[in-house]
């Protein structure tokens, strides 16, 4: 694992299709002759910024423009992946990142899910070499498309040698109920554990604490994306804490999705995680929407949320230990690199 001495950031929860440059999307839309209901780039850029009152549904609405622009377009996927890595270096200062996306959302007439993954990995690998950023990929299953789960697992295993490190469940959980968990997802996450494929699950963002319990104890999640609602149920919170599960905290997006009320930043769940010694990291989620890459996110955590430098540095160490890295040697190398750079 080659690491740049100039970079020491690490991020575990960032959506590739939520990190695109608005001007690139605007340019690609014109190239593909996709008509947008916006008169100029600035107006287009504003459509990605959710307005208060916030909700997860509003937060995700901007993806209605991203998907048709990228879907089935190999050149666009490669370009977007390469620009993502460049921004990871210069806007986030990352030496290691695990990006994620749902390949089945970006298929087209001439591209199936595997071709989408191939194009994305091509772009990531090219730019990673140039910018000296260790880049890995997590494949998402959309919770409303459980029929894709089997193929996602197969592709994750096939492309593990090429940088795919795990699987995820993503999508709007605003209307979560215990009955919603599709049998296909249970089966595939059981198999993933057997095969040694790493697992993270979005839960407890718009859904209740019970969704976090489901992610950890039924889907065998090693990490939970967001998970703030777990604090609503002390019993579940203690069970999950004792299990050593890692929470991928995304502070700015937690406000913009309505998961954390905008006027309670000083009482953000991350403060409880810190005081309890809960395993967590700090992440951006979707810079296209939040307007913040990791450098800005950490500055926000310090100035607005009141996190100490010590807490932020602990989150980095936690992230290294929770990263989907199978090589003990590589993990130690990364941890030593991050510690030396602090």
TrEMBL record:
Keyword Ribosomal protein assigned to the entry: answer is: no
All residue ranges annotated as the Adenosine deaminase domain in the record:
11-338
Q: What stretch or stretches form a coiled coil here?
A: none
E.C. number(s) listed in UniProt: 3.5.4.4
Indicate how the chain sits in the lipid bilayer.
Peripheral membrane protein
Q: Name one GO molecular function term.
A: adenosine deaminase activity
Localization per record? Cell membrane
**GO cellular component entries:** cytosol; external side of plasma membrane
Annotated Pfam families: A_deaminase (PF00962)
Swiss-Prot/TrEMBL cofactor(s): Zn(2+)
Principal location listed in the UniProt entry:
membrane
* The keyword Zinc is annotated on this UniProt entry: yes
Biological process GO annotation list? adenosine catabolic process; hypoxanthine salvage; inosine biosynthetic process; negative regulation of adenosine receptor signaling pathway; purine ribonucleoside monophosphate biosynthetic process
Keywords in alphabetical order: Hydrolase, Metal-binding, Zinc
According to its UniProt record, this protein's enzyme class is: hydrolase
Under InterPro entries, the record lists:
A/AMP_deam_AS, A_deaminase_dom, Ado/ade_deaminase, Metal_Hydrolase
Q: Which PANTHER family match?
A: ADENOSINE DEAMINASE (PTHR11409:SF43)
What the record says about family reads: Belongs to the metallo-dependent hydrolases superfamily. Adenosine and AMP deaminases family.
Q: Please report the name of this protein according to its UniProt entry.
A: Adenosine deaminase
- Organism, scientific name: Paragonimus westermani
